[in-house]
Design brief:
This protein is an alpha/beta fold. The protein folds into 3 domains: 193 residues, 2-enoyl-CoA Hydratase, Chain A, domain 1 (Alpha-Beta Complex), CATH 3.90.226; 235 residues, no CATH class; 117 residues, no CATH class. Helix content is 33%, strand content 18%. The protein is built from 19 helices and 26 strands. Strands 1, 2, 3, 4, 5, 6, 7 and 8 form an 8-stranded mixed β-sheet that branches. The chain has a 6-stranded mixed β-sheet with strand order 15-17-19-21-25-26. Helix 3 packs parallel to helix 4, helix 14 packs across helix 17 and helix 15 packs across helix 17. It starts with 6 loop residues before the first helix and ends with a strand.
Length: 570
Amino acid sequence: MKIFVSVAVLFGLLLTGCNSSDDSGSSTSAGGKTPLFTVYGNKAYMNGEINSDIVAQLNSMTAANPQVDTIVMVQVPGSRDDEANLKASLLVRSKNLKTMLPAEAMIASGGTDFFLAGVERIVDPSARIGVHSWADGNGTEGKDLAASHPEHLRYLTYYNKIGIDPNFYWYTLNAASANDIHWMSAADMAKYDIATRDMTANEQANVFAVPSQFGQAATDLFDRYTWVTVPNGKAIHIFAQSKVSLAQLLKARNTLEFYLADTATVKKTLVANSMGDRGASLFIFNDEKASENAMEGELGNSKIADFGQDLYATEIFVEGDSRYLAAPSSARDATFEEVLHLTQAQGIAPALASLQKKIADQAEVALTNNVWNPDADQLEEWRAEGDLETGNSVSHEYFAAIVEAYYGMWKGLPAGMDGYTGNSRALQIAHDSNGQAIIAEFLPEYIPTTMDIDPSFAVGSIFYMEYNAALSYTAKSQYLQSVRLTGKNNSNIVGNSQNNVLMGNQGDNQIDGKGGVNTYKVNGLQSEFIVGADGEGFLLQDTVDGRNGTDKLLNIQKVEFNDSELNLSR
């Protein structure tokens, strides 16, 4: 009988800080909810150890959700009943299900066997696949038995049925003892055809086609869908039209995740759960005209629009793109504003009445003191919008104005949004200190959520995260703590005084963390990299082509691999 590595032992071997969150959107429908599977759209998200009831769980889930075609394995450390696991795995194959490992996923032992049953297998570069020898109840390990021993037959038969090279079985026995784990290298994954195809960019980003459950109004208008899972297991929905770039879609999702991230002093559970309970939805349209047409049509009459907020591709500036880097002008990035409107209307106002009242009261003070100066017609329109539960639009627009100013989005202009005079942190303290105190009740001083730098960021360019008056965009980027280069360009990052978490791309990058205690994250096992001193820093070379390139590291104290951490302090 195969014994998996105990959860305590296995997670002790895992890289601290790399646990993946459950990206599922909702539980399976009545009769299909199981401890292991949570279904959203056509995907079943799998979390936890596999037990003797796995066949029943799988059948229950698929019966209740016949649309499911993919099992996304997030954290599956092994199986306690290998016979049941192999039966369930063969069911996966017979049901023609795909298997997928998303970003930072982890599977091991029996979880690996289950994954291999997928009729199509897709693996994110940051996922970990663990193998080891099995052991029976007496501690006898498979690697210690003769090749002709009948106990091997069940595994060899299984691999034969799913088309896996039988040599993979012998490889697993010798890779690690039953009380240890071996993380497969990219070379080993390729040798044994672990993945049947590469992940698409959308799949890597957890972006998929719009599920049919949202109705024709959504599927006709939008071509992509993603979500943010809240603590109660429900989802905040994000829909995007065809001209919204993937980078723009992720900027919107990252911004929502930032607003909902706990801080050292503030827990956002009530806000996030309120948004999930209400079915909050962000609709990202190609432009304003597309939004107007949609809301005048079927979408405007649909249930999903009741708790929605719109945003346009024309007003999403991604870190590192030409509009983000440009000097301040009448064109502006509205991502922070519109996503905050959704968060306030569907989360803060219903769940945190006292904070909502403070915002609304301070908005009136700011109007009275001419600190915030929207025109009279606009103000009258805002007062007529909203309701007692979500608050009227005056409170929403004021909160957006002070938050945008706080994070540097209006520095260098005569005033902030709608004539807000506190358009920098210093001016905000002078003109609207109570407004800044309200921000501190909900949001942190710096933005810890990783923001992606647009793939268009030019070869040889440096993305600066410290303020430089000669680079207007740094009024915003100075408040970032974590950024990731995307694409393939050989571009660079210079951090700031915070404890930065930085990531490169497929090109060759120079990463300077500057002050703070800084971490550099890469995709791959430590054994797949060559690390050496290079002048005042280090050179980090990925031996796997097309993945991380060769990076020069300065003022980086720690490198985080998929399987371990390397301390560079010296």
